[in-house]
Amino acid sequence: MYKFYLIIVFLFYSFIVNAGPFSDFKAGAELSEELTSSPTERRNTPNSDSLEQALLVLDPQNSDMWDYLQISLLGENSKVSFVEDVKVIMQDHIEEPHEVPLIVKLPNRLHNFQKLILIIENNPIQQVIALTPFKPIEALGMNVRLEDDSPVRAAILDNYGVWNIGSKMVFVSSPGGCSSPSCDPTVEVCEQGVVGKIAVKQYEREGEAERIKLKITHPMETGFVMNVDGDLIPEYYVNRIHVDDINGPIADIATYAALSSDPVILLDLPEKGQSIRVHVKDSQGLEFFSYNNNSM
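User: That's the sequence. What structure does it adopt?
Assistant: C-alpha cells below.
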C-alpha cells in the first residue's frame, strides 16, 4: 500500500494539464492528465485537499467495487500493479455525461500488451471495452457514458501476466449519462442516423506513425433509459469491432453500452497502415463493414 501511495504522489508532480496531440478527439474538450477533477469544489482547479481525497477514493482498499471487479473482469488469481505510466486522460470537469472523451496513453514498455480493459467503477455498466491487439498500440481513445462520480481505470495485461492499472477520479456535474436520454426532444431535434454507418479517417503522425479514428452510427441503448411512455428502451449496442488492413488484423475490440451513442474509437499506431477496414457487429446480430473513406 505504501508503494501505491508513492506512485500516486509522483503523479501529482508529473502530470501535465493539456494533452496536446489528442486535442482533435472532440472539439472543445480540454483533456487533462490530472489525477482528478476537484471533489471539494468541482469547478475549481484541483488543489492539495482535493488530491488528498482522490488518494483515498482511488485506493482500491477503499473501493466497494474493486475486489469484485478484479475477480470478475481480470481473473480470480490475477496479478495487479497500480502504476504511474499508464495515463487515463479526460476532461477535469464533466458537463456532458452522455459523451465523455477519454484517452488511454501507454508507455513504451506496454505497446506490445496482451489485452486492455477499461473500467468505470460506479457505472451500472462497468466494463466499457476489452481490446485484444495484433499490432503495437500506443494509445486508445473513445467516448463513454458516466452515470456519476467514479474512478476510471485502464487495466493493461503485459507479457508477464501482470495487469498494469492506471486510474483517474472523475467528478460529474450533472449525473445520469447511462440512465437518461442522450438527446432531450423537448429542447432539440433528435435525429438518429443510419444505423451501422461507419466513417474512418487516418491521420499521419510524426515519424511515419499513424492515428486511426472511426465513428459508428448506432444508438448504443443501455437498457436503463425510459421512453416518453415510461417504458424502458431495450438495450441495443455495438458489441464487437474488428480493425485490420491489407497486412492483417490490428485489433479486436469487445464493446459495451457504456460507450456513447455513435461511438468514436481512436487508435494510435507506431506504423502507418494501408487500406484500413472495419467490421462491426451489434447485439441484435447485425453486421456492418467499411473501408477507409478518410472522412468523418
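Confidence is low (pLDDT under 50) at residues 1-25, 37-43.
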